[in-house]
């Protein structure tokens, strides 16, 4: 049985933020980045990350919002209360794109090298997400399909969130969130190694979006919750993952053509 901890997601999110900052400062000290500016850049990324994560959660849940809150809106106050409740959750891809936007805005304001700061910051994002997935595991906000094999997770009634995880304790579940946490940690190591060896020659965000897109598209088939939204044969995250993978492939082809014409050898 997996007992529910007190505020597990908050604890893991705090650990993830700390881990992300440590990774970013670790790679930043080995590249020509100002530490103070890097810290401020992380604050920009954090601020826009929360906005993006909550915004995408709200957009994905618009049908649910119309169905459950439409009849309870009578004035401006009730409207904002309903919107706040409907946007109380977070979606990773929204947070990721928000964080990337925050870094870009910081660099534009301070006239910094956008590619360099994006590369350094993106090295830490997988570490933060890894801890976030552990928080999901302990909190029961999302869970795997029915599974009776090794490492299966059996939740308790304490994990049930009405309307979100009503059936989470019915059967043992596949440990999809711990699996993704391990894969995110491995991706973090991969990005750090690539960045330290090659500097800004390659686009770390592009590599991350491609590798994680494949991981996310695949492990979504192992999830048993429906809160992530289903559009046709795939979930919302799977559609976004497909767009990311295809987008990176197009980006690489364009860069390769430009590199071939200039003989720079830089394909990312």
Topology:
Layout: H1 8-28, H2 35-60, H3 62-69, H4 76-86, H5 92-110, H6 114-139, H7 176-198, H8 204-219, E1 230-231, E2 234-235, H9 236-262
Helix pairs in contact: 1-2, 1-6, 2-5, 5-6, 6-7, 7-8, 8-9
Précis, in short:
By secondary structure, the chain is an all-alpha fold.
Question: Please, could you describe this protein's structure?
Answer:
- By secondary structure, this protein is mainly α.
- The protein has a domain of 166 residues.
- Helix content is 66%, strand content 1%.
- It is built from nine helices and two strands, in the order ααααααααββα.
- A two-stranded antiparallel sheet has the order 1-2.
- A hairpin with a 2-residue loop joins strand 1 and strand 2.
- The radius of gyration is 20 Å and the shape is globular.
- It starts with 7 loop residues before the first helix and ends in a 6-residue tail after the last helix.
- The mean pLDDT is 83.
